[in-house]
UniProtKB/TrEMBL annotation:
It comes from Herbaspirillum frisingense. It comes from the Bacteria. Residues 15-314 form the NADP-dependent oxidoreductase domain. SUPFAM superfamilies: NAD(P)-linked oxidoreductase. This is Aryl-alcohol dehydrogenase-like predicted oxidoreductase. Pfam families: Aldo_ket_red (PF00248).
Length: 317
């Protein structure tokens, strides 16, 4: 399996990340374990989660995803095979939110305990906290890196000006630099990333681990009309916004490329991202072993220039 560096670090990952938001939400512990086992057997290694996953589900408090990953790791022989990425900053309730130093230093201990590990490979600011000085947030991460509890830091949902400012401050003060960015990025959501963030990430060597890579399942091709939205109550609202002429044009292009390669729409959509020079590893989730097979297939799918051009044209904004 091809390996790519996370930013300018010495940590390498396969070109597809598993999105752990489904653990403890869409799938139970047993199914999560089987998917993680098969994910690693396929030669993939980057698992992305967050402390807040999956607080939104009825009966959950947050931390469910990290807890399941931790139980899986505790079975032994797995920790050195995977790169664990988690996040801090979204609202965990009871005032636990944001990127102030004292909160980060508390939150990381909770994540380490749930993950049953002594270090996090990539610790990410889940949202930009404009109420906290960037220097304070980076100082917290510096403490964690020096303590060996965190190897790298990354940013999620940052605008280019704030990402650049944070990295400039890091250089000036000798603090850790954000080595990765998590933006929303897919064939249907291109403009927000490509106009400003992509040029910066390419120029600065910032790794890109995009989320919603399959646009909440729309790019799998299973949602082609409003009648299909009932297939997923959790995702139907977002998918509905893609049911328009541009969305249908993208699905048609995916169908055509998939047919040429005897593949699937989901695999082609991910392969398009993997082929993008700015992208390190798109994030995608699976709730069954069959879905996971489609994700793995994307890492082995070599799109031609003609394939990429057709997808670029169909998804032009």
């Amino acid at each position: 399996m091809q390996q790519r560096k996370l930013g300018q670090s010495d940590i390498t990952v396969a070109p597809l990340a598993f999105g752990g938001n489904v653990f403890g939400w869409s799938i139970d512990e047993k199914t999560s374990f089987s998917i993680l086992d098969k994910f690693v057997e396929a030669g993939l290694n980057l698992i992305d989660t967050a402390d807040v996953y999956s607080r939104w589900a009825p009966g959950n408090q947050g931390g469910e995803s990290e807890t399941i990953i931790g139980k899986w790791l505790a079975q032994g022989g797995r920790r050195d095979k995977v790169v664990i990425a988690t996040k801090v900053g979204k609202d965990m309730g009871e005032g636990r939110v944001g990127l102030k130093k004292d909160y980060i230093l508390r939150a990381v201990e909770d994540s380490l305990r749930r993950l049953q590990t002594d270090h996090i490979d990539l610790y990410q600011s889940h949202d930009d906290d404009r109420s906290t000085p960037l220097e304070e947030t980076l100082a917290a991460y510096d403490t964690l890196v020096k303590a060996g509890k965190v190897r790298l830091i990354g940013a999620s949902n940052y605008e280019v000006d704030r990402l650049a400012q944070a990295r400039d401050i890091g250089r000036q003060l000798g603090l850790p630099l954000y080595q990765t960015l998590q933006p929303e990025y897919s064939l249907v959501a291109r403009e927000g990333f490509e106009r400003t963030l992509e040029p910066y990430c390419l120029e600065q060597g910032v790794g890109v681990i995009g989320f919603y890579s399959l646009a909440s399942g729309f790019l799998s091709g299973k949602y082609r009309s409003e009648a299909d939205l009932g297939k997923s109550a959790a995702r139907g609202g977002k998918v509905k916004s893609y049911l328009n002429p541009r969305g249908f044009q993208i699905l048609a292009a995916l169908d055509a490329v998939a047919a040429r390669h005897a593949s699937t729409s989901a695999a082609v959509a991910l392969a398009w991202l993997i082929a993008r020079p700015s992208v390190t590893a798109p994030i995608a989730s699976a709730t069954s072993l069959a879905q996971l097979d489609e994700l793995v297939a994307a890492t082995r799918l070599q799109l031609s220039r003609e394939d990429i051009a057709a997808l670029d044209q169909a998804s032009a904004y």
